[in-house]
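Usage

Read records sequentially. Each one opens with the input sequence:
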Amino acid sequence: MSKNVFDGFAVTVFLDEDGDYLAHFVEMPNVSAFANTPEDALRELSVAWQGVKESYRKHHEPIPQAPPPKAVESSLNIPVDAQLYYALADEAAKAGVSLYALVTQKLAT
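and closes with the structure output:
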C-alpha cells in the first residue's frame, strides 16, 4: 500500500477487545475501519478515507489536510559500557574527529 494512500495522515492499527484489527487516523479517530487482519483493516481504512473525501467534495467542503510532519529528534543518548566509551573516544581522537562524528559514521555503515 502506497504511503500517499492516506494523504500524509498518521495511521494506527491495533487489536481490539473483540479480536478485530482497528485502523484509524491519529488526527481524525472517527475515520476508522476494522477487519480480521491488519492488512485488511488498512485496505478498509483506505476505502473509508476515499468515502470521506467524496462526501466532503459532494458537500463542497474543504478536505481535511494532514498536519505537517513533526521535526525529528536529532540527538541520541545511549548508555554504553565505560570500556567501549573510552575505546571509541580514543579511536575518535586518533582519527581527529569528534566522538559524535565517529559514532554517526559507524551507525551509517
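Summary fields computed downstream for this record:
- The mean pLDDT is 89.
- Residues 3-58 form a domain with the Double Stranded RNA Binding Domain fold (CATH 3.30.160).
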